[in-house]
């Protein structure tokens, strides 16, 4: 049975104005048990929000490897909650 995960959103959070500005929006499908990799370069606070339409996708973020996985040595930040996943990447 194929399951698909859909809708990855990258959002910049402006702490001074307390408003969000969309940097990048991706609508994509990922098969269950697979990974999809995306990259984003920005010199500010970044909020990554993952909304799953079907199944339960997770977010793994790394500044040291281009292909993070769920293994603890292969990611810097992660969100593995049920429902919407959110990760904040601090300003460099």
Automatic annotation (TrEMBL):
<dbReference type="InterPro" id="IPR031420">
    <property type="entry name" value="UPF0669"/>
</dbReference>
<feature type="signal peptide">
    <location>
        <begin position="1"/>
        <end position="18"/>
    </location>
</feature>
<keyword id="KW-0964">Secreted</keyword>
<keyword id="KW-0732">Signal</keyword>
<comment type="similarity">
    <text>Belongs to the UPF0669 family.</text>
</comment>
<dbReference type="Pfam" id="PF17065">
    <property type="entry name" value="UPF0669"/>
</dbReference>
<dbReference type="GO" id="GO:0005576">
    <property type="term" value="C:extracellular region"/>
</dbReference>
<keyword id="KW-0325">Glycoprotein</keyword>
<protein>
    <recommendedName>
        <fullName>Secreted protein</fullName>
    </recommendedName>
</protein>
């Amino acid at each position: 049975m194929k399951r698909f995960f859909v809708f990855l959103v990258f959002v910049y959070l402006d702490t001074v104005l307390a408003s969000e500005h969309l940097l990048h929006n991706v609508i994509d499908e990922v098969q269950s048990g697979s990974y999809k990799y995306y990259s984003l370069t920005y010199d500010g606070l970044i909020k990554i929000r993952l909304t799953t339409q079907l199944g339960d996708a997770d977010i793994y973020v790394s500044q040291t490897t281009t292909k993070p996985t769920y293994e603890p040595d292969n990611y810097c930040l992660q969100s593995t909650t049920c429902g919407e996943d959110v990760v904040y990447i601090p300003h460099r």
